[in-house]
C-alpha cells in the first residue's frame, strides 16, 4: 500500500524537482499574459536585453498593485512577484504619450489611449500625455502583447537597479501571429 502512494506522488515530486533545478539555472516559467506563455531564461547581462525581469519600485504604485492583487506574492521588496516585460526605451530615448497612444523616438508603439480603469472599473494612475525623455540608468517597459499589461504606461520609467535579469524566450507557445519575439 505504501508503494502505491509513493508511486502516486512520484510525478509531482519529479515536476517540483525539475522546477527547482530549472530555477537554479536561471529558467522561469511565464504564466502571465504580458508575453507568450512558456519557458524563459536569464541572460548573462541585462544591458541591451530585449526583455527584463524586474521588481516594481517601492511606493504608492507597488502598494496599489499589492492591495488590488494584480500580481501574486513574491520575492520583491514590496512582497510582489517580479514582472517580465519587453524593454521599449532606454536612456536617451524619447517616449511621447498622447490621447491616441504612445510613441518611442517618433515610432508609434501603441495606437490606443492608455486605459484609465482596470478590468473591474477601478481608476488606474496612468501616465499623463506628454513627452518623457528617458533618463540615465532607466528603462521603459511596455508589452504590446496584451492590452491590459501592467507596465510603464502606468508607472513610468523603471530604474536599471530594479532589474533582476535580462531574459530571453526559450520555448513559448500561445504566441500571437502578429507578435514577433526577439531571441537574443
UniProtKB/TrEMBL annotation:
InterPro entries: LexA/Signal_pep-like_sf, Peptidase_S26, Peptidase_S26C_TraF. Keywords: Conjugation, Periplasm, Signal. Residues 79-168 form the Peptidase S26 domain. Its main location: periplasm. It comes from the Bacteria. One of its GO terms (cellular component) is periplasmic space. It holds the Pfam family Peptidase_S26. It is found in: Periplasm. GO terms for molecular function: serine-type endopeptidase activity. One of its GO terms (biological process) is signal peptide processing. Belongs to the peptidase S26C family. This is Conjugative transfer signal peptidase TraF. It comes from Rhodoferax ferrireducens.
Amino acid at each position: 500500500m505504501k508503494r502505491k502512494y509513493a508511486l502516486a506522488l512520484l510525478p509531482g515530486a519529479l515536476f517540483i524537482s525539475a522546477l527547482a533545478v530549472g530555477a537554479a539555472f536561471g529558467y522561469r516559467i511565464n504564466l502571465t499574459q504580458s508575453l507568450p506563455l512558456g519557458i524563459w531564461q536569464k541572460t548573462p547581462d541585462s544591458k541591451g536585453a530585449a526583455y527584463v525581469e524586474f521588481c516594481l519600485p517601492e511606493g504608492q504604485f507597488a502598494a496599489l498593485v499589492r492591495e488590488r492583487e494584480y500580481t501574486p506574492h513574491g520575492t520583491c521588496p514590496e512582497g510582489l512577484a517580479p514582472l517580465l516585460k519587453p524593454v521599449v526605451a532606454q536612456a536617451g530615448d524619447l517616449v511621447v504619450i498622447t490621447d491616441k497612444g504612445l510613441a518611442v523616438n517618433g515610432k508609434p508603439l501603441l495606437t490606443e489611449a492608455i486605459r484609465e480603469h482596470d478590468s473591474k472599473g477601478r481608476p488606474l494612475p496612468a501616465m499623463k500625455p506628454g513627452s518623457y525623455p528617458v533618463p540615465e540608468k532607466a528603462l521603459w517597459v511596455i508589452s504590446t502583447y496584451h492590452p491590459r499589461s501592467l507596465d510603464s504606461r502606468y508607472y513610468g520609467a523603471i530604474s536599471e537597479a530594479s532589474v533582476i535579469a535580462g531574459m530571453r524566450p526559450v520555448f513559448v507557445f500561445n504566441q500571437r501571429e502578429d507578435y514577433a519575439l526577439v531571441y537574443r
